[in-house]
Amino acid sequence: MHTRIVYIVLLSFIFFVDSQSQDPTFSQFYANPLYLAPSFAGATEEYRLGMNYRNQWPAVPGVFHTYSISFDKALHNFNSGIGVLATYDVAGSGELSTTNIGLLYSYDFNINKDWHIRPGVQFKFYYLGLDIYKLVFNSQLTGSGTTPSIYPPPFDNVADVDFATSAMVYNDRIWAGFTLDHLLVPKTSFYGDEANVPVKFNLFGGTQIIRKTRLKVKLQEVLSVAMNFQKQAKFYQTDIGLYYYRDPLIFGMWYRGIPFVTTQAGDAIIGLVGIKTSQFHFGYSYDFTISNLISATAGAHEVSVIYEFTTFKLNSQKQRIRAIPCPEF
Predict the structure, then answer these.
(1) Which of 166, 254, 259, 299 is 20 to 30 A away from residue 268, measured at CA?
(2) pLDDT tens digits, one per residue of 151-165
(3) Burial of residue 160 (number of CB atoms within 10 Å: 0-12, 13-18, 19+)
């Protein structure tokens, strides 16, 4: 009974309050680089295929799942990269879903022999849907129902367009960048009210503290520190963490909830383990909740798979976009 009451309260907010939604967040930021910033489009040897899945709060009734698939290609002759990114986020028993499908482009500028600037843009289609027949209403809680019965009027799913831009600066050991997303503030109201997705701001960066290579080509051991700050509407979040890579394994630890720069201080500790080869990357991470929700959510599971491949021989490609030193998870 308590769970059903919670559903009714949430439903009231969905239908009768002008609310502003927030984007889903991936703990493995760099395993979904096109989602983090359009500047990463084409920042690969030639082709890259990525797939990501996140199961948020599995102990909470209903589902909170996010899926992502991306594909991008480096255009070496033009110092550019192109890509396509699709994300699908579904939440709650009524399967309130958000779908984004976008095209991305980035360009790499040489400031000097050491530093590069890489701006990027994304144009995308936005779709918001809800399966009303999976919701539980007040009139369904008892055998006799209620008078009058509660049932929302018909509504239309929402379709709109959106735009994001980003810029990143980097050398062979340091990277930093920002992203501005939802610049066209797409609609989120099923009834045509003034409700929009608020603009999201991301600030990310990091550096390689230790780096050992073999034959000055293949990375053998790397220790990196990185951070990611994001703000959307009244909510903001800061993550800071370490990555340790020793060919072919990678381990990571993140802390989410730094006081004064996160809405929910002391939110989660994130552990990561993965494997990285020249073509295949696989990562698994778990968000261990440390806030007052510790006994109610069961954290979050996240899986990432990246496959990179080329169609040319290494010695035949004279022009190449310089590798960005950030981790792949």
Answers:
(1) 166
(2) 666 777 899 999 999
(3) middle
